[in-house]
Write a structure and sequence with these properties.
This protein is α/β, with parallel strands linked by helices and about 500 residues long. The chain has helices at about 15-30, 40-60, 105-115, 140-145, 160-170, 180-185, 190-200, 230-235, 275-280, 290-300, 325-335, 350-360, 380-390, 400-405, 410-415, 430-440, 455-460, 470-485; strands at about 35-40, 60-70, 95, 125-130, 175-180, 200-205, 220-225, 240-245, 265-270, 285-290, 345, 365-370, 395-400, 420-425, 465-470, 490-495. The protein binds thiamine diphosphate and magnesium ion.
Length: about 500
Amino acid sequence: MLKEFPGDFTYVLGLQELVVVGMADGFAQASGRVTHVNLHTAPGVGNAIGGISNAQANKAPLLITAGQQVRPQITIEANLTNRDAVFAPRPYVKWSHEPPRAADVPGALARAIHHASLPPKGPAFVSIPMDDWGAESDEDISRNALARAVSGRALPDPAALETLAQLLHEARNPVLIAGPDIDASGGWEAAVALAEKQRVAVWATPAPGGGRLGFPEDHANFQGILPPAIGPASETLKGHDLVVVLGSSVFPYYPYIPGELLPQGATLVQVTSDPAEAARAPMGRAIVGDVGLALERLLELLGPSQRPAPQARPLPGEPAVAQPLSGSAAMAALADVWPQDGIAVVETPSSTVALRNRLRLSRPGSYYFSASGGLGFGIAAAVGVQLAQRERPVVCVLGEGSAQYGITALWTAAAYRVPVTFLVLRNEEYMILKWFAELEQATGAPGLDLPGLDVASVAEAYGVPAQEVYAREELAEALRKALAVQDHPRLVQVPVASGMWLE
Ligand SMILES: Cc1ncc(C[n+]2csc(CCOP(=O)(O)OP(=O)(O)O)c2C)c(N)n1
Ligand SMILES: [Mg+2]
């Protein structure tokens, strides 16, 4: 594959397959373009599976190829034969294929690219025997494959949208739930316009599924993040007679806290580009189609509403000054220095909600989080996002435990001079798992402490200049300095107190 490598491809080396997929995932989401990832044969695909499952949840359009033994040695299973190449990635990709002939490889790659870029976007996999790269392709097939254009933005059923517009018009107290596909479909401005025109309160879809933001979090209509559990989510929605879910599954729940799926008397309508999301929702109606196009149509169908405008939620107060800092104080320091066009890549479980409440990100394409919660996304995706968005400062906020899964991507950041600012919150534990253990009444669960884990020292070894700071002012200053560096990554580590930080 690397022989006579074409000059119009950018090759980026990652040191382990999980982070290679994470980097491509970040790049694909932040650029909107299909991104090619190449993996080693069976062991490499195995290492990558966590990242491929993240990419599927993130709807990241990836062409994933993997090496394979030469065709004459597959049947005798020479070393590094991928025995059943299409099998391992299958649950996590839209298409998994090993071409029957060498001449079919170009057509298979083209098909995989189209699968990846059609909604719902996601990874597609092609296993390529090594000797195929030197074989002749079929000129006619290749020429035609290159000339194709495939578009997948589908307008939802016009009648269903008219019904939804009517429901919105008649609703006494409707609410919008904003999901990641709003950002991915370019529907950001239309979502804001609809919320304002119709005077509707907006909640973000629960944190794990909210891999991207669907609505500006500093907007007066924005109310916060829906809790990720059945009972609390429907409690939060009490009083609303219409729940309109835009570009999200219904809902990305996490802990099982039973309750009613919807408050009494409420109707739910979901708009999603993903037929599987529509099919598996446990309640409500669903309309399948492009969310951005649906929003534009709803704006045409609906006039301004005379409903009372929603009340803005209060800003969180100043956090207490103590050392170690609380997660909230660390996020307040980050907010102090946050650049207007900053992008947050987030993998900091116990401080994610505090981050969202304090940064109040207000622009599209400003937030990336692994939608399935698989760790190993953060560092890697931040590198990919920064490579795709060279003009915008990228800040990657990490728990020290999470950082371990993607740590080798620090080398790629240093080697390619990718100027991400990494912020590591060091609480010497897997805090969120302690919270979960308590919820599950698993008292005395072992293996939840991380004493002595020093990410700053590890970062230095990968070539990323790093420092540890302690006080809020010192943290803000270190972040300000790191953000000013434009030709190299920097890492700042701060000890934080134990706790789940929600404000
Ligand atoms: C691949 C993978 N393995 C394990 C987990 C389970 N898990 C969720 S959060 C977490 C620990 C996070 O620790 P840290 O980053 O220090 O965050 P804190 O909760 O302390 O803020 C683990 C192990 C996961 N989500 N993904
Ligand atoms: Mg931790």
